[in-house]
Design a protein that fits this description.
- The complex is a heterodimer.
- Chain A is α/β, with parallel strands linked by helices.
- Chain A has one domain.
- Chain A is built from nine helices and 20 strands.
- Chain A has helices at about 5-15, 25-40, 55-60, 115-120, 125-130, 135-145, 370-380, 385-400, 405-420; strands spanning about 80-85, 90, 100, 105, 150-155, 160-165, 175-180, 185-195, 200-210, 215-220, 225-235, 240-250, 255-260, 270-280, 280-290, 295-305, 310-320, 325-335, 345-350, 355-365.
- In chain A, helix 2 (about 25-40) packs antiparallel against helix 6 (about 135-145) and helix 8 packs antiparallel against helix 9.
- The radius of gyration of chain B is 18 Å and the shape is globular.
- By secondary structure, chain B is an alpha/beta fold.
- Chain B is built from ten helices and ten strands.
- The chains are: A alpha/beta, B alpha/beta.
- The interface between A and B is medium-sized, with 23 and 31 residues.
Chain lengths: ~425, ~250
């Protein structure tokens, strides 16, 4: 059996029973996504971008849900508009009113064909993001998503929008697909938190018109045994700005893919991640940023703290097209290994076709600085607290990418909580 | 205050003996100085007392106000009242100097069962003590010792000492890397902390520092032992004649 045939055979098993025929405004996008998925098949360990993260758990049957860690509501002090999805289904009782000043909110399951912006976005950013690197789980998501929010932001929205995930079914396989359209000069903050259930697949497609700004802050700190694969596809027009930060702690296998296209001139994209991973958990950040417009800036800042045989993976690429003169690209991926059993695998890639470009990248792995630890202890700080202080310091650059001081402080507090809970 | 008895120490990783029976008794309110040639074990003594890893105590004891220091974790020694001013203060990127000071002060208060200082009270005290050491607001904001000059690092050590109010202070070559003015500033900082309940052990190569911080007792250390003890005049003798005569005398 050839590799491709094998992929497709696995896919048939993964998809299970014959699927309902797609209907509604997404039906054509879904049908095309299914065709894409069938052409590429499920990922395999031999695929270039799946060499360090075995896709088997994501391809196979849904595992049982592990322990859930209670979590306070993100951005509670900022009065967020809460949209709750339980086991991948919208939970109106646990959600705010769908009225938003400066924008409109609709749901994927009930939206009609007259929602033009969503029709333009749904599946189209995902489809663009399939070249040159195939992303089968994103295509699967477009084809099969149960629910999601469709956000059209027309003004500056001060109130954060919280996508709150809960789960109650042990073998839940949640597939959510969100579309966000920001009009020119619009601004919004999207928060994500909670448990996606036993296996989660979330896609966000975000289209940022000229001069708009999107802040995305995500906390994946709820599940011990969860599997999740997420994709953030963003397209930025001139002077648009995207800031995305993810805190990850717990989760048997989490893969966060970020695919960004800087189309207009002077757009900026900052993506950052802070992960605290305890063995045998596996964490993967895969980033692909394409510079197309002139004088755009991109930053990738990823910090992993690993122990007990945990594995951290970073695959980060900056592609600078010939048109993208004056590009400023920066990429750093670092790991702090708290013992000798853990692994950090980093694959930085730069592909540059323009000649007037500033691009830098760096990757390091190291242990806690014993001298600094002793210095803190000699001043009376207990060892565990001293270690936590040094871990926070290590993650400071990633947390520093959050624009809101309140949300940055919340993330710091969550990191401290995780450190106390896990005794990392 | 501090009572060191027959202290023998070797390196953990290799079979190298560094301290070969150190005996030292420092009374409350006293200032003792230890001088000695390079490699005599002065810094090792300070590290072993503070609890740094990498050393193995093969014999002896070190009591701080009757409590065995050698059984304690470094942070417990600090809470018990021991303070070591480092020869090479450590740079800690990402940890603000102010956060560091407050964390340390409150950790010690907590360990001693005292209430933590409110941030208002803490700020007031730290600003006042920083001012006398000519430490400006910028130095308090920056990460611990990052980008500090040699003199600034040593002043920062003294500020920590002033904030933590220890009972037994060890100054490990605090004069190294200091110009004349900085040495005066640091010495004034130390002298301001001298009182009947606080003792000092000053480790130095040069008599110069002892002009500013006048010791009650001077010890000469060589080859892991204290070979001679005397008054301040002993430091002058070393300054004038070097260690050769003293070492010969012992042999």
């Amino acid at each position: 059996m050839s590799v491709q045939t094998k992929h497709r055979a696995d896919l048939a098993v993964r998809l299970g029973a014959p699927l309902p025929k797609p209907a509604g405004f997404t039906q054509f996008a879904r049908a095309r996504a299914m065709a894409r998925l069938q052409a590429m098949g499920l990922p395999h360990g031999r695929d270039e971008y799946w060499r360090y993260t075995a896709p088997d758990l994501l391809n196979g049957a849904v595992p049982d849900l592990g322990a859930q860690h209670p979590q306070g509501q993100l951005g509670a002090g900022l009065d967020p508009l809460v949209l709750t999805f339980c086991d991948g289904v919208f939970d109106a009782a646990a959600s705010s009113d769908l009225a938003l000043e400066g924008g409109q909110i609709a749901l994927l399951s009930t939206a009609t064909t007259d929602l033009h912006f969503a029709q333009d976005i749904y599946g189209s950013l995902e489809e663009r993001g399939q070249t040159p690197v195939p992303r089968p789980f994103a295509a699967l998501n477009t084809a099969l998503a149960q629910e999601g929010v469709l956000l059209h932001i027309t003004g500056k929205v001060a109130r954060p929008i919280l996508l709150n995930y809960t789960s109650k079914t042990k073998d839940c396989d949640a597939i959510l697909h969100h579309c966000i359209k920001l009009d020119a000069s619009a601004e919004a903050t999207i928060l994500e938190q909670g448990s996606l259930g036993a296996r989660g697949n979330v896609v966000i497609e975000a289209d940022l018109a000229a001069g708009s700004a999107l802040h995305h802050i995500r906390s994946q700190t709820s599940d011990d045994a969860a599997l999740a694969v997420t994709h953030l596809f963003a397209r930025l027009h001139a002077d648009a700005a995207l800031k995305s930060f993810t805190l990850c702690a717990h989760g048997r296998l989490i893969r966060n893919e970020t695919v960004i296209e800087l189309l207009g001139d002077h757009a900026t994209a900052h993506v950052a991640g802070a992960s605290l991973i305890d063995g045998p958990d596996h964490h993967d950040d895969t980033v692909f940023i394409t510079h197309q417009g002139r004088a755009c800036e991109s930053r990738q800042v990823y910090k992993n703290v690993l122990k007990n045989g945990a594995v951290g993976v970073f695959q980060g690429k900056i592609l600078v097209r010939q048109s993208a003169q004056k590009t400023d690209g920066y990429q750093i991926s670092q790991s702090l290994l708290l013992d000798g059993d853990s692994q950090f695998l980093a694959k930085p890639e730069l592909e540059i076709y323009a000649d007037d470009v500033k691009c830098s990248h760096g990757s390091t792995s190291g242990a806690i600085d014993d001298t600094a630890l002793f210095y803190l202890q000699s001043r009376g700080v207990p060892r565990a607290q001293a270690q936590a202080l040094l871990v926070l310091a290590f993650m400071a650059e990633a947390v520093g990418e959050i624009a809101s001081p309140d949300l940055a402080e919340e993330m710091r507090a969550q990191i401290e909580d995780v450190l106390q809970r896990a005794r990392l | 205050m501090l009572e060191i008895k027959n202290l023998h120490v070797k390196l953990e990783e290799e079979d190298k003996v560094i301290l070969r029976g150190v005996n030292l008794n420092i009374g409350a309110g006293e200032v003792h100085a230890i001088m000695g040639p390079n490699g005599s074990g002065k810094s090792t003594l300070s590290y072993v007392l503070a609890g740094r890893e990498g050393y193995e105590v093969t014999e002896g004891s070190a009591l701080l106000q009757g409590e065995e220091l050698l059984d304690m974790e470094p942070e417990e020694r600090a809470a018990a009242g021991l303070f070591l001013a480092f020869q090479y203060p450590v740079e800690i990127p990402g940890v603000g100097n102010m956060t560091f000071l407050r964390t340390a002060v409150n950790a010690q208060r907590k360990a001693r069962g005292e209430a933590e200082l409110s941030s208002g009270d803490f700020l007031k005290i730290v600003r006042e003590r920083a001012k006398t050491l000519k430490i400006d607001a910028d130095m308090l904001k920056r990460p611990v010792n990052m980008g500090f000059s040699g003199g600034e690092k040593k002043r920062n050590e003294i500020l920590q000492m002033a904030m933590l109010e220890p009972k037994m202070c060890i100054l490990d070559e605090t004069d190294s890397g200091l110009d004349v003015d900085a040495m005066k500033l640091v010495s004034e900082g130390v002298n301001a902390l001298r009182d009947a309940g606080r003792s000092f052990l000053v480790i130095t190569h040069y008599q110069r520092l002892l002009d500013h911080i006048t010791p009650d007792v001077v010890h000469i250390m060589a080859a892991g032992r204290i070979i001679k003890t005397g008054g301040p005049e002993l430091a002058l003798e070393v300054e004038n004649n070097g260690y050769a005569d003293l070492l010969a005398e012992v042999e």
